[in-house]
Amino acid sequence: MALPSTRAIANSAQVLDLIPIVNSITSLLQTLNPRNPIPINLTSSPLSRFSPFLDPNLVTLVIHKQTNPYHALFFFNWASNPNPNPNNYSHNHTCYEAITDLLLRHSLFHPTVKLLEKSQKLSDFFVGKIIKAYGDRGNIKAAIFWFNKAKSFEKDKYFYSFNSILGVLVKANLIDLVETLFDNVVKEGVVQPDVSSYTILMRVLCKKGMVESARKVLDEMPCEPNLIAYNTLINGYCKKGDLESANLVFDKILTEVDSLPDVVTYTTLIDGYCRKGEFVEAKRCLNMMMKAGCSPNVVTYNAIIYALCLKGEVDEAKKMITEMTLNGVKDNTATHLNILKGLAVAGRSLEALEYFKWMAGCNMNLDAKAYIVVVKEYCKLRKIDEAIFLLKGMCERGFSHNMPQMGCMPNSVSYRTVICSLCGTEGRMQEVGYLVDDMLRYGIPIDATMYGCMLEGYGKTGNEDVAMQVFNEMIGKSYIISLESFSVFVKMLCAKGMIEKAENFFEDICRTFPVVERDGYRKILDKHLQITQGSSKENSREENL
Questions:
Q1: Which of 240, 264, 313, 544 is the most exposed place for a label (fewest CB within 10 A)?
Q2: Can you tell me whether residue 362 is helix, strand or coil?
Q3: With contact defined as beta carbons under 8 Å apart, do 406 and 371 qualify?
């Protein structure tokens, strides 16, 4: 085993020496408790006693220690111009990077820009960070604004901004825009794309299924491709199910690339085999990985566990969890969510419900996916009341994990499952209305499937007013009405003697959806009209007798 260098030991010792000072400064900042970027009537003089200790390492450690970004900013501003300043201290690049990262992590964009502008540090490097932060929060418009701003003041030095905006656009799935931007920058010849730029382009091509084009980019890029570029190509082949080509790239890494395959390389291959159901090959790859001295992580094991659970092989998946634990890898919520889904796939609903309760009892951060699985299982077992209670945020039998508090709001899938189950259960249509009201209050729209179930439910119960309202809303939103739903609806109308309305609703469908199979709807309507007319004739005959 390689021993740490003398410099590393010295740096570690220096950090240890600074920890008591860092803790003292943090305690003082908590006492001062600045609550905004420019604290009013708040003196920084208590910090003066720490002036002799100021150096970039100390400042960076203090910033990293703060959970409140305003505390860090207050300290940073004081250290920018301390009084006294016996060592002539000034911030270096690392200090500015630390405070910028912290502020952006808390979405404090205005204080970040103001700080960088005031210190004349608003460079391409830091603009790249601002672009990424806006992208992480889904504000693509602001990210593009800052890229254009970087182009305007950096002229031929907006390299970091360029790579950042490419990454943001890929994450937002704006694939065509990435290609256009990349081509324009290359054509301008102002910025020379590096391996990161070309790797992003490869990722875009792989997302479009153009893996061979991505391969061409790898082969022809003017700079030396790195392991990340090769991993991107392997991932592209695995997503297409072309494991043979993926392995050829893997072999090339072993023979031609300076870096050895890493955990991402092996995990990508293992996931590719699992998606094809080739578990023997996946295990072989896992063993090869461990023999090569590359330790699998929880993502590696979860790939195998997920694939096994998808096939309903839950017991085999549980064995993998045991193996993972024995190898020193800690499971996570995703691991157990896979087991939960696997139990549902295998039809082991009661076990799935118990497993969910166990997960909740372990204080796992259960998201909407976990709740959807359990809601569906309750509905399968016709335990709709339990599903409704869970939908509203409460687990039964003593668990009180409120979904909104956990950041787990019910979504359209969970509501759809319960609403459609209620629509198929006699005497429960009134509750459908209550759930729809709740759903709309949460800002969740009614989808086509829910509308179809509601149309059938109200049709079967003979509630023509609400059924017609549902029908009209579906037409208004251009939701295609299935033949089955239409049959239930017109059967109710015909039974109530509303023949003209049934004809009008048929015409509404044909007018709104000219491409639908008109004959299919006509046959259904004619069938119910004949039944109704036959019943009318029979009733008339009985009256005459």
A1: 544
A2: coil
A3: no
Amino acid at 444: I
Q: Are 248 and 230 in contact (CB under 8 A)?
A: no
List Cα–Cα distances, 80 to 9, 18, 29, 67, 89, in angstroms. Answer: 29, 19, 16, 20, 8
Does the pLDDT value for residue 543 go beyond 60? no
CATH number at residue 518: 1.25.40
98 three-state secondary structure: helix
Is residue 495 domain-resident?
yes
Per-residue burial over 499-516, b = 16 or more CB atoms within 10 Å of its CB, e = otherwise: bebbeebbeebeeebeee
Q: Kindly report the number of other CB atoms within 10 A of residue 533's CB atom.
A: 12
What does the block give as tokens for 427? 């005497």
Distance CA 415, CA 433 (A): 12
Measured CA to CA, the distance from residue 199 to residue 467 in angstroms comes to 54
What are 34-86's pLDDT values in tens digits?
876 667 666 778 899 999 999 999 999 999 999 999 999 999 999 999 988 99
Q: What is the mean pLDDT of residues 330-336?
A: 95
Q: Is residue 322 part of a domain?
A: no
Q: Is the pLDDT of residue 256 over 70?
A: yes
Lowest mean pLDDT among 20-34, 55-69, 408-422: 408-422
Predicted pLDDT of residue 161? 94
Mean predicted lDDT score pLDDT of the chain: 88
Q: Which of 242, 218, 243, 221 is nearest to 229 (CA)?
A: 218
Answer whether 0.85 is exceeded by the pTM. no
Query: Looking at per-residue confidence, does 411 or 95 come out higher?
Result: 95
CB atoms under 10 Å from CB of 336, counted, come to: 20
Please state the three-class secondary structure of 402-444 as a single string: CCCCCCCCCCHHHHHHHHHHHHCCCCCHHHHHHHHHHHHHCCC
- Contact 399/360 with Cβ under 8 angstroms? yes
- The answer to whether the beta carbons of residues 185 and 191 sit under 8 Å apart is yes
Of 462, 370, 380, 456, give the one whose Cα is nearest residue 413: 370
> Residue 450 in contact with residue 416, Cβ under 8 Å?
yes
What does the alpha-carbon distance between residue 273 and residue 262 come to, in Å, rounded to a whole number? 17
Task: Give the residue numbers spanning the domain of 516.
Answer: 446-538
Residue showing tokens 């540090």: 121
Q: Report if residue 544 sits inside a domain.
A: no
